[in-house]
Design a protein that fits this description.
The two termini are 37 Å apart. Helices cover 46% and strands 16% of the residues. It has two domains: 60 residues, Dna Ligase, domain 1 (2-Layer Sandwich); 206 residues, no CATH class. It is built from ten helices and 14 strands. The longest helix has 24 residues. Helix 3 packs across helix 4, helix 6 packs antiparallel against helix 7 and helix 7 packs across helix 8. By secondary structure, the chain is α+β, with helices and mostly antiparallel strands.
């Protein structure tokens, strides 16, 4: 297998061929992850790199069956299912995360920083059947929302507890507005996608409050997050496929704890940030509508 040439999918585009040594180098550098789709001669179709035995450290999966010819298309037009993945470099992700935080703290730059952060992160997401995903929102679309979010970051330092409690539903409504804005401004191959998030503001506030209350249980928040993500997915309309969240509460719990504990030591932050982002993105998947009901 060491003499094979490999192709991999990045942002819906076929990359390669690359010698296996080069592909393994890309894996080591994080440019190709366990959730990246790959193909080489002898495989029946594109597969996750983590499902190819011996390709990704810690990955395992069933052997592939031979199929002559070149690589099949990278889900360019059909509607299939499959998990989402994100292709982010170690330092670019850290840089954008820091820039986002600083922009919010400075308040005035928040609309511009947030918009360009979303454009970058969305461009790194691979969605089966939706090549060249992009975000087309403009900084001034909902500038007041990001200004308000920036201002609310300082509420936690206030000694007025009633103000802190009041900020919880306000933050929830602002986040709800951001999700609706992002969903309404997605495109694929330059064509706007008819996607909309139709979850109610009241429902979103309810989940936010429930999340805060769940911290009393120490670990219950992980199951609340899982149920909340599934509620958000159920309220995404306008697609031929339904969006699902596949992680369990236990998976959210232990991975988040590992992420937080490792970040306490500062140095692991870039690696843990990418690890967590890649895992979290891979827990969202697309399935033909009605698949879950018929399962």
């Amino acid at each position: 297998m060491s003499n094979r040439s490999w192709f991999y999918a990045s942002n819906g585009q076929q990359q390669g061929p690359h010698p296996e040594t080069q592909l393994r180098d890309l894996i080591t550098r994080g440019m190709v992850g366990a959730d990246t789709l790959v193909w080489t001669e002898g495989m029946s179709g594109w597969q996750r790199a983590g499902d190819i035995p011996g390709l990704v450290p810690g990955g395992s999966g069933p052997p592939s069956f031979a199929q002559p010819g070149g690589p099949p298309p990278v889900a360019a037009g059909g509607y299939g299912g499959g998990a989402l993945s994100i292709d982010v470099g170690l330092w670019p992700l850290l840089g954008w995360a820091l820039l986002f935080i600083i922009g919010m703290l400075l308040v005035i730059p928040a609309p511009w920083v947030a918009t360009y952060f979303y454009r970058w992160i969305v461009s790194r997401i691979y969605v089966p059947g939706r090549p060249n995903l992009a975000f087309n929102g403009q900084p001034l679309d909902i500038w007041y929302v990001f200004i308000a979010i920036g201002i609310l970051t300082y509420v936690g330092s206030a000694d007025l507890y009633y103000l802190q409690y009041l900020s919880i539903p306000i933050q929830a409504v602002l986040s709800w507005m951001v999700i609706r804005w992002v969903a309404a401004n997605l495109s694929s191959n330059g064509q706007p996608l008819p996607i909309a998030f139709n979850g109610s503001a009241l429902g979103y506030v309810g989940w936010q409050v429930l999340l805060y209350l769940s911290f009393i249980t120490i670990v219950g928040w992980a199951w609340v997050v899982t149920a909340w993500m599934r509620w958000i997915c159920r309220n995404i309309d306008g697609t031929h496929r339904e969006v699902i969240f596949t992680a369990s509460g236990l998976e959210v719990l232990w991975r988040t704890l590992v992420f937080v504990i490792a970040c306490i030591f500062i140095i692991p932050i870039p690696w843990m940030l990418r690890w967590y982002a890649q895992w979290y993105a891979s827990q969202f998947a697309l399935a033909e509508r009605g698949t879950l009901a018929n399962a």
